Structure formats: structure tokens, C-alpha cells
Amino acid sequence: MSIVYLIDAPVYVFRAWVTLPAMPAPDGSPTGAAYGYANTLLRFLREREPTHIAACFDEAITSFRNKLFPDYKLSRGEMFPPDLEVQWDICMELSRALGVAAFEAFDYEADDLIATLAERAAKAGIVAEIVSSDKDLTQLVREDGAVRFHDLARETTLDADGVRAKFGVAPALIPDYLALLGDKVDELPGVPGFGAKGAAAALAAFGSLEGIPDDVVGWAGVPVRGAEKLAASWREHRARALRVRELATLVREVPGFTTRIEEIAWRGADRAAFTALCARLGWGRIVERVPRWASG
């Protein structure tokens, strides 16, 4: 059975940017983040030997979500740091040189492109595996097994039951869960008083945000501490939580993005393009790690 691998590229670019030194190219520009991303992608290609793969990127720090909630990812600013900006472009270039389709879309995030491609794969009867460590993307995991989630760092793969075991809610309720719990990475506020267990218990009892009662009487039998305080906190922050859920919900049909699954087939790296890129960046023997070159 074919698998479509959908790489959440920002996760691995940012991780390399934080952990690796600048590694200046011959022209002095930093390449450490790009080098780390290249190694991650090369290892993945070697170990998985994919038939279909795509890497999805953020076109910018901001997206349509900032219009809905100005504080969304506020601390990241409106632009990539200069030493990362140049490497962002390199990461897209090296993805394509390795034969991996790379995408970005104005006003949308990598997560939305991944959601769109995952939906198209499922409709085509092909399993999609999302490669990321971002729990937001677990909302895309399907009960029928058509979409699953793989954390490369932990080497764990989650199906729908795995998402339930990890977070206490079904994949479809991850946006509701994040609305109650909040998300520090994306700077989404939660409902004060709700921790992971409380959020999961409330959703298990009431089904969705809309089902959570304002009156503590409706919380009878829910296995949480401080139900009276949670009910009061929910009553006060309900409107904001519903807005946060909207932000946390991924777009499954990005406007104007027309790529079909058959267009992201992996046939190997482009020898000339990748070799020239590595020479320009001064990367030396990394070319020897390419698992397969495209014919011709």
C-alpha cells in the first residue's frame, strides 16, 4: 500500500536553527538550520524510501489567523529573523533538489497545506502519514486509518486510538481540547483552571465546547477537581475559547492550491541541482548521503 508522507518542514527547520551553529557558507551566509534540515530529510528518504512525499512550509510568520486574533504567535514578530529568512529559501530549494515537492501558500500555514493534502490523499484511497511533533496536526488523524501522525524525534506513530490514549480525546476534538488547555507554542490562551486532564474530562463528559454547561450543577459526576471554579471560568471565557478553537482548526482546502497527490511522487534527487547547491553552500560530502538519484 502506498503512503503519502507530509513533512511539517517548519518544525525541523526551527529545531535545527535553535540547536546548530551558523555554519557559514563560502559567501559568509549562515547555513546551519538548512544543513540540519537537509540531514533530517536525507535520513528520512533513506529509511522510508517513499513513493510520495511533500514538504510544507510557512510562507510568512503571519497568516489569516492574525486577523482573527492579533496575539496569535505574537512573540515571533511579523518576519523571520534575517539569519533564518535566507535559510528558509535554501530549505525549499534543497527539498526540490532532493526531488521532494515543496509548498507554501500566501496567508496560510504549513499545517493548512498538510491538512489539504491529507484530505486529498484520503479521498484517493491512499494513506497519509503526517511527519511532525506539533500536536495541532493530530486533529487530522482519521478513525478509518487513512491519516496518521508520526513524531520523528520520538519515533512514535499515532492512529486515532493513539491520539485518544495520548490526549484523552478523539482527533476531531483536538481543536476543542486546545481551546480549553491553550497552546504555549502558538500563544493561544486557554480557559484558566483547565489542565490537560480537566480539558479531556470535560470533553469526554460534554462532547464539545458547545456542550459544556455554565452552571456547576451540570458538572455533577464529571471526574474533575474544582468543578465549581471550572464552571465559573468557562462561563467567563466561553466566547474567547470558541474563537481560539477557530484558530486551532486547520483549513482542509486551501484556496488556489490545486496540487494533486500524483504530482508529489518521489523519483529521486536531481543530481545536478543538489550537487550545485551543496557546492555553493560548502557542504562537502553530504552529497554521498543521497539514497537515490532521479534517472536522467
Descriptive account of the structure:
The chain has 296 residues and is α/β, with parallel strands linked by helices. It has two domains: 3-167 and 251-289, Rossmann fold (3-Layer(aba) Sandwich), CATH 3.40.50.1010; 171-248, DNA polymerase, domain 1, CATH 1.10.150. It is built from ten helices and six strands. The protein has helices spanning 9-19, 32-48, 65-68, 82-97, 110-123, 160-167, 174-181, 196-206, 227-248, 271-281; strands at 3-8, 52-56, 101-103, 127-131, 147-151, 156-158. Strands 3-2-1-4-5-6 form a six-stranded mixed beta sheet. A hairpin with a 4-residue loop joins β5 (147-151) and β6 (156-158). α2 runs parallel beside α4 (82-97). The radius of gyration is 21 Å and the shape is elongated. The model has no long low-confidence stretch (mean pLDDT 94).
CATH topology of the largest domain: Rossmann fold
Q: What radius of gyration results from the CA coordinates?
A: 21 Å
Content of β-strand: 5-15%
Helix tally equals 10
CATH-level-4 superfamily name of the largest domain: 5'-nuclease
The main pleated sheet reads as:
6 strands, mixed
* Average pLDDT, all residues: 94
Described by the principal axes of the CA atoms, the overall outline is elongated
Order of helices and strands: EHHEHHEHEEEHHHHH
Architecture of the largest domain in CATH? 3-Layer(aba) Sandwich
Low-confidence stretches: none
Helix/strand class: alpha/beta
Give the distance, in angstroms, between the N- and C-terminal Cα atoms: 27 Å
Which strands sit side by side, in order, in the main sheet? 3-2-1-4-5-6
Number of domains: 2
What is the highest CATH level, the class of the largest domain? Alpha Beta
Helical amount = 40-55%
Number of strands: 6
